Amino acid sequence: MSENNYKKALHIRNAFLSLTGLFIVLEAVLILQINKPAKLVIENMSTDEQLFIQEVEYGERFEVNYIHSVERSPVSEVFEVRSDGIYTMESHTESFGAGMPYEGDDVEIRNGTFIIKNINRKVHGGTLRIRPSSVFPHHIVIGDNDIVISDAPYKGNNLEVKLIKSYFRGD
After folding, report:
1. Residue 170: its pLDDT value, please?
2. Which of 4, 9, 65, 68 could be bridged to 139 by S-S, CB 3.0 to 4.6 A?
3. Residue 38 DSSP SS3
4. Beta carbons of 40 and 163 less than 8 angstroms apart
5. Spatial contact of 8 and 2, defined as CB atoms under 8 Å apart
6. pLDDT tens column, 50-91
7. How far is 154 from 171, CA to CA, in rounded Å?
C-alpha cells in the first residue's frame, strides 16, 4: 500500500470514527429528551405568577380534592401527567348529584364511594383551570405535597395547573 493510499484510508477511518462518536452523542441526547422530567406548575391566571412548582415524571398522577358545594360530599379527581398534557383519569364521588362527574363505563363502588376509572380524557388545552372554594378546603396533592389551595397565596385566585417541559435537569 502506498503512503498516499495509507493516508487516505487513515482519514476515512478517522472520519468514520468521528461520525460514529457524533451519532452516539446524539443518541444519548435523544434518550435523555425522551425520559426528561417535566414541571407541574400552579399559576395565578391573572398575574402569571408561579405559586408552586414541582418536578414530575411522565405517567405520574396527582389529585384535586374538594367538597362539592351542592352535594356537600368529598370529591377526588385523579389526573395523569403525559408528554402532551394533563389527562383526567379517575373521579371519586359519593353521589351523582348536580354538577358531579358521571361519564365513564368503568365504575366501581368502594366503601360507599363511586370510582369512575379509565376516563383517559385530555384536559382541554392541556391546562387544568381551578377556582378554589372559599367555603371548604380545596387541595392539590402532588407526590408528597398536599397544597391547600383554599389558603393564601392561592385563595381567591383563578388558578392554572400546567405542565412545563424541562429540557435539562435543574431547569
Report:
1. 46
2. 65
3. strand
4. yes
5. no
6. 999 999 999 999 999 999 877 788 999 999 999 999 999 999
7. 24
